[in-house]
Write a structure and sequence with these properties.
CATH architecture: Roll
Order of helices and strands: EHEEEEHEH
Number of strands: 6
Number of domains: 1
Low-confidence stretches: none
Radius of gyration: 14 Å
Structural class: alpha+beta
CATH class: Alpha Beta
């Protein structure tokens, strides 16, 4: 099992509403996620997001195609998938926990070596201080 962090922008996709309705999100897969991996989701800085890690999710399915994934058009801005969306594979992330407190703010994360991911998820397993800090706030 690996631990990852990736970023989301609620002004592009309504992650909160998708998690609330489905309990999971089918996320575009560029990284090598495996079943059982843990993913911490960082919302981009205000005004678009909260500037913090707010979700902990678990990968429950990998290599989903566009035909396999849940229809989530309603959560995309203007209800339209991004260009070339059908060319990607998806991983299903089941929500484990949501955290909204200040302890996972960008400022506190940076103090532990965090740099916000830009587009791709990055592996936390090689950053033990940061991973321990994040895990301690979700346990």
């Amino acid at each position: 099992m690996s631990n990852w962090v990736l970023s989301c922008n609620p002004k592009v996709y309504d992650h909160a509403a998708s998690f609330k309705k489905n309990g999971f999100i089918d996320w575009v897969t560029i990284n090598k996620f495996e079943d059982g991996d843990i993913v911490y989701i960082y919302e981009v800085i205000p005004p678009r997001g909260r500037g913090a890690i707010v979700y902990k999710a678990k990968i429950t399915k990998v290599d989903l195609t566009l035909d396999d994934k849940t229809d989530d058009h309603v959560f995309w801005k203007h209800g339209v998938y991004p260009k070339d969306y059908q060319a990607y594979k998806f991983s299903r992330m089941k929500l484990i926990n949501e955290k909204e407190d200040i302890y996972l703010s960008l400022k506190s994360l940076r103090e532990h070596g965090f740099t916000a991911p830009q587009g791709f998820a990055y592996l936390l397993d090689n950053k033990p201080n940061l991973l321990n800090f994040i895990q301690s706030r979700f346990n």
